[in-house]
Amino acid sequence: MKINKYLELHKRGILSLLLLGAFLLSLTYIPWSSDLIHAGGRSTINEVIRSFFNPDLSPHLLRIGFIASWQTLAYAVASIALALIIAIFLGVLSSGVLFESVFIKTFCRGLLGFMRAIHELIWAWLFVAAIGLSPLAAMFALAIPYGGILGRIFSDLMQDVETPQILALKTSGASPMQQLFYGYFPASFANMLSYTMYRLECAVRSSSILSFVGLGGLGFQIQISLSDLKYNEVWTFLFFLVILVVLIDIWSNLLRRRLSQ
Amino acid sequence: MTSKKVLELKNISVAFDSNKVLSNLSLSINNGEIIALIGPSGAGKTTLINIVANIIQPDSGEMLIDGVPSISINNRKEYAKKIGVIRQQFDLINQLPVIHNVLAGRLNQWGVLKSILSLIRPQEKYLAKNALSRVGIIDKMFEKTANLSGGEQQRVALARLLVQNPEIVLADEPVSSLDPARANSILSLLVDLVKEENQTLIVSLHSVEYLKKYFTRVIAMRDGKIYFDLPIDKVKEEDLKAVYDLEVTS
Amino acid sequence: MRKKIDIIKFSVYLLTFLIIASWLYIFVVDEADLFKLFSAKNATYTKKFLSGLLGIGEEVPGFIDRDLWKNAIEMSFETFIMSIIAIGIASIGMLLTVIFASKNIANGELTLQKKWYNYPLYYVSQGLYIFSRSVPELLWAMIIVFILKPGILPGALALGIHNFGILGKLCSEVIEDMRYDSIMNLSSCGASKTQLFLYGVIPTVMKRFLTYILYRWEVIIRTSIVVGFVGAGGLGQDFRLAMSFFKYSEITLYLICYMLLVYLTDIISNFSRKFIE
Question: What is the pLDDT of chain C when averaged over all its residues?
């Protein structure tokens, strides 16, 4: 068999081998030695693992856990709400369904791309440097990248709406704005909601790591407990986080199943 | 040439969710017969084939292959040496090149190591070559299966059967999704190959056009029971009409 | 017969309630002040910050300094390597467990076999996936740097664990959505379970798996800079140092390197995805 034909037939296998090779090659960059682990590393691993099976469930800690979970959730929800506003606005503009101007489309698309290229934590640092430690810094830090992501997805969803439906509206004399509300939005609503719920789940995770900019919540509590070396507390808060994420995931799945009926 | 009983079904019954799909079905088939299985949709043809292919287990009754109870053949590989299947479509792994799909017929002879080796460098290539030239598509040997037309894909499935070389070939509506010209050539090819290899063939069809041309025996099913079972020269027009008649309820 | 709860109505109410409650909480309890945002003090800070980024007022702005560039490129390379190790860990972990985590294998539909250990294995693997993906990479990194010294490995591990969970979920769904027919046909050719995987399952899912792996790699490279914040290696560490010392023009340098890394990774990933068509 000619080399070309063989390559063509086994593309995926070849890519897999290349990736595996790259991985093994990268492993050589790690300075393998006992220097990798901290002095007390071994015992720390044991303690961490043991604490997993023995999380701190005292009422005092559980109370902190619930409050921290609410804080994390609140920031996530508020930011997603803001992100939705940004996303709908920029998404509609960049999809070209209202204005066909190439300039507006490209500009908004570029803006959305820029917004979502930068990680929320970096946005957080930037805002803190600019306006100081403030809850609004956290909200903007979450809303901007998530607005960018949602906006791009909304824009794509609207562009994917099938033209026959829109054509029917156009021929009955609907203005672009009316086309938007009677045609594009209803058609992509289910998908938009589904993605938003998924992003809400991600936002909860992101919200928890905003503790780095001083935001209260589960991440903040985990940091405190870590520095006190209280691993059972750490696991308790981690469980809170996992349960919170799982609850939203279940909610999101129920909604999605209902919408696809 | 002595005719031996290759397949025997005794009082086979199957029910799905309290629907009786097959009721007390009995038949016996000799080596070398070319049998057409006809009947309206829902008659139980596919279920019967799946039972013989050991994909579904009957609720009651017994099945003998070459005089041996089928349940005593607990090795899938041994079973594959006796029985092979070709279906309407989705027979093959689309992402694999044709040659691997054909050589898959040898999986009942190969161990794991040889199977892996073959994916990198095809083993026993001559088998595939022979089979593919007999079905007329040797030029497609290294094509990705997904790129072939429906008729060509069925030829690949036939080639795989050749390589597998079972005693009994079961075909579940193999030509239903092909246009009449192609259906005819595939059916003709199937029957020729089976005759060359001295195999037994059971084909389920939903069209009665080809009966006189290719088959030695016709088994008609209706509502999970055998409606008639006759050699081809004894089958009359009225019988055929009656099988598919919507008004008559049994 | 009880009326079924309409999930949509319920969701709308719940969402509205949550949104109002969170906005109230943030603005009342945490005292977020929108108007303070536009105060003169803030304006000066912002101006200082932006001009710092652009290097105004500095003799040698950070993004021109040759030594800093050399270091930044080394760190970017390190970050790149870290991302490859991370996606490698995630993928290998996924490949080892995804078979057990697929419902259609656990209940025997695909393999036509029922073994007693299938269901427990299913729940354990899915549980692992859920736990590892619910905890964000940064939190994993925070814990891991307590055990391992700062460097590439802790960052790669943290990213790897989190994405292991995500890949696990995505790929087990691919297996659950597979068409059985062609694979059952192989079974009638006499294929053993292993042969079914080799000839049936793997060719069918490989493309999807590779696509998901490449996609997660793109996400990992974007997150790897952040993992450095906790000292888990790469560009992030220098970024954080520059932040703490208010070396704004250096930050611009790192931001540029970061965007170049992301751009490069996107190109490689897109090319690979087109390659496997």
Answer: 84
